[in-house]
């Protein structure tokens, strides 16, 4: 994958995450920032940050429960540690951090 292909894929994925969060009904403020960063602030005051990391060609998630790295495998983004799929992982992380049951779909 070229740098340009990664940037396009990462940007599209961040947009899908933002749309999925908006559609989920979770109570949070979403802010897209320059450089491929999505900041999520939940009503309980906690934050989550999802950003692209070009050098590693990964999407990184910083949540209250820890940091996670996801790499494109040709069809989905997979956690580099446990192989979990990005949207399934985000569903669990957002649910735990927000205190609301949330299912995010890509």
Q: What is the gist of this entry?
A:
By secondary structure, this protein is α+β, with helices and mostly antiparallel strands. It is 33% helix and 33% strand.
For the record, the CATH architecture stands as: 2-Layer Sandwich
Strand fraction band? 25-35%
Tell me, briefly, the overall form.
Answer: globular
Strand line-up of the largest beta sheet:
1-2-3-4-5-6
The CATH homologous superfamily: Frataxin/CyaY
Instruction: Flag low-confidence runs.
Output: none
Q: For the residues shown, what is the average pLDDT?
A: 95
Number of domains: 1
Helix-strand topology string: HEEEEEEH
**CA gyration radius, whole angstroms:** 13 Å
Structural class: alpha+beta
What's the tally of helices?
2
Helix fraction? 25-40%
Distance between the termini: 21 Å
Number of strands: 6
Q: Report the major sheet.
A: 6 strands, antiparallel
Fill in the CATH topology.
Answer: Metal Transport, Frataxin, Chain A
Give the class-level CATH name. Alpha Beta
Explain the layout of strands and helices.
Blueprint: H1 3-24, E1 28-33, E2 37-42, E3 47-53, E4 58-63, E5 66-72, E6 77-79, H2 86-98
Antiparallel strand pairs: 1-2, 2-3, 3-4, 4-5, 5-6
Record keyword descriptors for this entry.
globular, six-stranded antiparallel beta sheet, alpha+beta, 6 strands, Metal Transport, Frataxin, Chain A, 106 residues
Task: Give a structural overview.
It is built from two helices and six strands. It is of the alpha+beta class and 106 residues long. It has one domain: Frataxin/CyaY (Metal Transport, Frataxin, Chain A), CATH 3.30.920.10. It has a six-stranded antiparallel β-sheet, with helices on one face. A hairpin with a 4-residue loop joins β2 (37-42) and β3.
